[in-house]
């Protein structure tokens, strides 16, 4: 096996998805034993961890530009939700840490990476609830001009705020943005939604899923297991958390149309690319201004290929 994407690359999709993910599900307790070796990165002078909700054991990791950079103006703020199919990784995972640090350094920006609860121990909408907590935390920092978090007080432009996520984190970012439309976040102003290889699905297979059925990075069978573990018990992949094109009576129609602007970045070699194109069409159909960038590559390529990361950071900087 070779490490790549969000899991471990395999030679064939006939391998059991749980074996690929190196996870064991205990259905009686609905818990997951995670044996996948995931390196973590400790804090340095440009990162700090803050507890978000001690009861839920959620937290955030804040990234600022390296102190040697001359920062004369307030910086945009990005709240970031990591990927991992709702079941893997944390804000301290090296793959997440390095990506957020790259964003903070190259834009530059203040990045608030949310360490939300994982499924199946905390199934959706738990991660969406944690996202709301994180948005309220940022609002409270903006209001507390005397005793707020010093890095945000020193660096953050709360009027230039973005919600961003990657893969399953982009799914969380999407629903977080929908919830934010009903929240009073002043003086925080959301200027855009950034969806990097967003993770959605349905019961019906798309052409890209059929074409890439043996994909070594995110085979449809692996996606199915992730959804099975993440969705509310008894739900199918046509639950609106997975398939946002369905009308749940809350997150569609006029509410979606209130999203200010959106950047969607995907790759042709990703089995979920058709899902991402469907999402773009739905957003545009509701009047959202969408910028779409689709290039050659696979699911998670920006985390491992320096040229792709450079291209991604360039698109991100232009959008912000």
UniProtKB/TrEMBL annotation:
GO terms for molecular function: hydrolase activity. The keyword Hydrolase applies. InterPro entries: AB_hydrolase_3, AB_hydrolase_fold, Carboxylest/Gibb_receptor, Lipase_GDXG_HIS_AS. Keywords: Hydrolase. Residues 78-297 form the Alpha/beta hydrolase fold-3 domain. It holds the Pfam family Abhydrolase_3. Gene3D superfamilies: alpha/beta hydrolase (3.40.50.1820). Belongs to the 'GDXG' lipolytic enzyme family. PANTHER family: ARYLACETAMIDE DEACETYLASE, CARBOXYLESTERASE 120-RELATED. This is Alpha/beta hydrolase fold-3 domain-containing protein.
């Amino acid at each position: 096996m070779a490490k790549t994407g969000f899991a471990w690359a395999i030679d064939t999709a006939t391998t059991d998805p749980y074996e690929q993910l190196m996870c064991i599900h205990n259905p009686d307790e609905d818990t997951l034993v995670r044996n996948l070796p995931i390196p973590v990165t400790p804090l340095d002078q440009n990162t700090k961890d803050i507890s978000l909700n001690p009861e839920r054991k959620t937290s955030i990791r804040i990234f600022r530009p390296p102190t040697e950079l001359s920062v004369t103006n307030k910086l945009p703020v990005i709240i970031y939700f990591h990927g991992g199919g709702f079941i893997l990784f944390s804000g301290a995972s090296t793959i997440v840490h390095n990506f957020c640090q790259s964003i903070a350094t190259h834009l530059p920006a203040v990045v608030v990476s949310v360490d939300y609860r994982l499924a199946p121990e905390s199934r959706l909408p738990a991660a969406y609830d944690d996202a709301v907590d994180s948005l309220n935390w940022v609002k409270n920092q903006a209001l507390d001009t005397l005793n707020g978090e010093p890095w945000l007080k020193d660096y953050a432009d709360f009027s230039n705020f973005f919600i961003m996520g990657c893969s399953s984190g982009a799914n969380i970012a999407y629903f977080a943005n929908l919830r934010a439309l009903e929240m009073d976040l002043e003086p925080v102003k959301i200027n855009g939604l950034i969806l990097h290889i967003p993770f959605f699905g349905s019961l019906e297979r798309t052409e890209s899923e059929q074409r890439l059925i043996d994909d070594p990075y995110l085979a449809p069978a692996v996606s199915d297991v992730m959804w099975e573990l993440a969705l509310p018990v008894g739900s199918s992949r046509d639950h609106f958390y997975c398939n946002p094109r369905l009308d749940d009576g809350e997150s569609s129609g006029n509410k979606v149309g209130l999203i200010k602007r959106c950047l969607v970045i995907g790759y042709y070699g990703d089995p979920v690319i058709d899902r991402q194109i469907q999402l773009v069409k739905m957003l545009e159909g509701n009047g959202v201004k969408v910028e779409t960038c689709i290039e050659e590559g696979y699911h998670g390529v920006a985390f491992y290929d320096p040229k792709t990361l450079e291209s991604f950071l360039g698109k991100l900087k232009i959008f912000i």
